[in-house]
Every structure is written in C-alpha cells, then in structure tokens.
Amino acid sequence: MLGLGNSLISSSKIKTLHFSYQSDFTSDDNGWTKGSFHNGTPTITPNQGTGDVADGIGWLKIVYGADQTSFPFSGAITKNMLSSGDSFLPNDNVVVSFKVKLIYNGVDDHWSGTDDVRLSFGGYNPSGSQDIPLNTTTTVSDNSGPLTLGTNRDVFISFSLSGDKPTSGATWYLKDFSIQVFR
Fold first, then answer.
1. What is the C-alpha separation between 155 and 179, in angstroms, rounded?
2. Lowest CB count within 10 Å: 4, 44, 98, 121, which one?
3. Omega into 72 within 30° of 0, i.e. cis?
4. Hey, what's the torsion of the CAs at 170, 172, 131, 55, to 10 degrees?
5. If pLDDT is split at 50, 70 and 90, which confidence band does 4 have?
6. What is the pTM of this model?
C-alpha cells in the first residue's frame, strides 16, 4: 500500500479519505468512555501529565477502580468515531496511531508483574495489538485493511485476552489518538 496525500492505493484501486479524527484531551475526554466489557467504573481525566516532565501535559489519564477480568476486552475504553448512521465497511482501510504509557510505581503490582502488557485496539476487523513496556511512552501505529468485516462506529483500546490485565489502581495514559478511514 502506498499513501498519497489523502488517498491510498490498495489492490490497484485508489481509496480516498472518508473520515479522520485526532484527539485533543486538553479540555475534555473527547467522548472516550468506559467500554461495555468492564468491571467497575474507571476514572477518566483529561489534560494530565504522566509524571515525566518530558511527556508534557494533554494526556487522558485512566485509573481503574476494580480488577479487570472481563472477557473479551478487559478494561476497554471506547469512542464513537463515525457520523451517525455510518460504520466501518468491508474493504475500508484504517490507519490508527496513538501514544500510550502504562504506569508501574515500583511498589504496587497493578499489571501482573513488570513484563510487557499486551494492549489491543480496534473496533474493526482485523484489529491490532502491541506489547507495551511499563513506564515507557510508546507510540502505537497500525494500518489495517482492507477490512474483512464491517463492524460498528466505535473504536476501543483494551487489554488482551491472553495477557496481563490491569487490577484496581492500575493507571495508564493516552495521547494523540489519530484514526483515518479510507474508502
């Protein structure tokens, strides 16, 4: 696939940008909410710093108030992305990127150890996942498509079925979430 401005070439068909979103957590949560597969209610706070001066502010802070053991999308947060009545469709291409930081304070084990934690993201099929080290600002990026199934209008970020799950008090940060849908 080759990206050209606001279009993609996929399987000899030029796809144009159908939808684009870029988060801005400086004043509010931008519509990100607790997902349906969630234990308890997380605290979601905009315009936060991660505790590292180099990261700056403007992060969305998520703190879990209960252990996350739900199947299949443990600890999910979601956002409705597309205009009313629209959805992801088969053959769409989705380009997503964001920064994430999972916090380990050196004392409390909120992530089932200090190994990397598998983060899942999607709302479209195929969706993606990436292993995230603790206490490290990590940029996640994925180019999914063409999609095999049309799904819904919501995207999610959660923790993998087979990996570590956040426990009560687990804290992580989200910034610069960007999604582009090409059709």
1. 9
2. 4
3. yes
4. -140
5. very low
6. 0.88
